[in-house]
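Handout, tutorial session.
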Amino acid sequence: MGSAQKPAQTFWGLWNTSFGFFGIQLAFALQNANVSRIFQALGSKVDDLAFLWIAGPVTGLVVQPLIGHWSDRTWGRFGRRRPYFVAGAVLAALALLGLPNTPLLLVAALFLWVLDASLNVAMEPFRAFVGDMTPPHQRAQGFALQTWFIGAGAVLGSLAPAAFKAMGIANTAPEGVIPPSVRYSFYLGALAMVAAVAWTALRVKEYSPAEMAAFADEPEHSASHEPLVYPARGALWMLGGALLLGLVLALGLDKQLLVLGGGLVAFGLLQVVVRARASTGALAHVVSDLAQMPRAMRQLALAQFFTWVALFILWIYTTPVVTREVFHATDTSGAAYNAGADWVGVMFAFYNGVAALAAFALPVLARRIGNVRTHMVGLGAGALAFLLLLVIRDAQWLLLPMALVGVAWASILGMPYVILTRVLPARKFGIYIGLFNLFIVIPQLIVATAMGGVMRSFFPDQPKWTMLVAALVMAGAVIAMARVQEQD
């Protein structure tokens, strides 16, 4: 047992620890602002956009908890978290190079899957990395600086196509071809991804397992010897999934819901197999830790679920909403459509810029009203933003809701993790942050499988109404946060 106190980081220590997120978020912003544009350019219909994003969340359901579990238990020549975010950066860079250079929609969807999975591999250990390298009293500052890098990377990623257009590089192309300004932006993203993550990997020395055990006042490797819990509700999950599959087939519901039903069956089957075999492998540990989530984490998870449903609607449907409703364009090869798509990049850059500034204001507000209430304020700003996106038809005025989205985004990136790391054992930061991120991935899966059917059934060729759905679910996130009991 040990009782050493983890030393506080200097400003430059915090800077180096978080700098890799600049490249990760630049790549993430390029994905969010341009992938729907690429899919439409390659022939996808608006109603099918959500389904084409589905491979990433399905992979994330598996990748994030496993990467968290393994990174908690990894220690070697290259450290604990670093091998994972370096590998993720290299794979993501390769996907960024391939995505805008394929003429085939199916291949583009495959590259999106690789990109999304790779970003999951890189991003999850970075969240735990801040917890590893900072004492509890400094984590709000650490996550704030990480949010600043996320905002800065996202600004550059979102503005890149418009910036290349301003340099004289074409932002239009024949049907089935990705504009050069978009391709060059993805090349920039690949370079930034590798360079930024390499900076953190080379500049930060991780604490050894013995040092981490001393800081946490826990026996070294104690997580490896804890008794496992085997949930007994696997059969119920399988039954629920089977019922959904049956309803889809019997009532002729949207076939994309088969993916969701199959996922429920698979999750239930995993629990049944793990329990029947009394397994002790990585999947058994993931299932056990999921069953033992701290109460505050469960409360946060519901708010996180609603929040990310709204965010994925924003990222998938803002381009068709703005190009159709504000720029009055549906021809993806036309100048008006591409001008609208470029403006969406500007909008996304603007909200990320606001988030970068708000990141340092939110901890100040949190000291006055608490972390939970501060996050409720941020989510409330997001709900109002979606209502404004539903009604505003002037391109310049769209920056107003984007400013509100920026406040919400800053809070989403920081406050839940500040609250969460107060209740988690340090030896399990990786696995529990990986499990917490399931409530980012599951909403993406639901939006990807269900939103296209909702659009076709209730508002065909009217993507603007997705913003009303987003406003309602974000309001649900505010209500869910009111139930979270903050730990001092």
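The second record follows below. Compare its token runs with those of the first.
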Amino acid sequence: MARDTTDFRPIEGIDELVEHLAEGNKPRDKWRIGTEHEKFPFYVDGNAPVPYGGERGIRAILEGMQEKLGWDPIIDDGRIIGLVEPTGQGAISLEPGGQFELSGAPLETIHQTCREGNAHLAQVREIAEPMGIRFLGLGGSPKWSLAETPKMPKSRYEIMTRYMPKVGSKGLDMMYRTCTIQVNLDFESEADMRRKMQVSLKLQPLSTALFANSPFTESRPNGLQSWRGDIWRDTDNQRSGLLEFCFSPDFGFADYVEWALDVPMYFVIRDGHYHDMTHITFRQFMAGAARNEVPDGLPTMGDWANHLSTLFPDVRLKRFLEMRGADGGPWRRICALPAFWVGLLYDEAALDAAEALTSSWTYEEVLAMRNAVPEQAISAPFRNTTLREIARDVLVISRMGLKNRGKKNRDGYDETSFLNTLDEVVARGTTSAEELLSAFHTRWGGSIEPVFMEYAY
């Protein structure tokens, strides 16, 4: 999230919080695709991490991008920490360890998404390469320790950094040493949201498996294919993971609100200052727990929107649904991830088929799959088969959905070609992580350094 929300309307009751989510309902002709992708900046000389400050730092990249694009700066305590397109059509933000993120505009087709991603990468390269900086497309930082990883001067991250070790063993790794590709998708009603939430929660481990791309930590194989997927198993289980209540046949907006109310907060913003609120839940905040702690200690709709942005389930509900399972990866994956989910969720016949495929999957089965995927990826077992075989069926459904959409580019090609990189994973039977490990043990001669050349943007 590039910019935290300031909306000073007071909250009168829980119904308003439910209505806030329901306001995301959109007719089908208004459905859009919002793609986010993160990457690790590094100095080509020595493959070292890039700090915030200095003439060749991340601040300088942001300032160069601001001058090139004309986007508005996002300022936190006097420091530029992101950019936003003036009409809200996209933003650039920083993750805690300097991971550089594009939050894309809401677009109609994957063709547009791919052009957007390519344009962004070309723009940031134009600014960064003269500084000797490139960007790495992996799901986990392959070389640098936490101590070596820079820290970005962003107020919410200071609060999170203090809090994470209290609630899990891997939260700091999540913040500072992972990258993802995500897609944000719309729904037309509560019933439509429910279907999409349930299908995408059940298939999120498959997404993690297909995009597994984080097999190294501190210059050595870590024994996993998706280190990032493993990190999310013990980051902060009060606010992340697989949400069992979402599997209920009558799950709705109000259920998500009730869950969110009992998750500890991170912060509230008053007069531009971030106040640490990690000691209370949002329900306690609404009951007046912060009246004597922060100026005007009554909750606002902006506080609620910000709180929703600090929840990290595998699929996050805001006024849209966020698919959060995939590792970061090379540029082809930036287009493949939204194509995978749009094909499944934006065509009625495809959604029917995906729902039928997964309808009998239980929470316990999906949780077991989720736990197996970081190590085994597409080889993970499921019932009497493997995720590789499940992936074959799911990709057929996604391809059907994209074909049915009929969104063609100027050369007459539809969106199905963006799935080719995932078809290759299934056909080979090996993930990107396994290809990286093979290279490490053979042609790289046990060195991590070549990954910075082969997986650089």
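Points raised in discussion: The CA atoms of residues 252 and 405 lie 27 Å apart.
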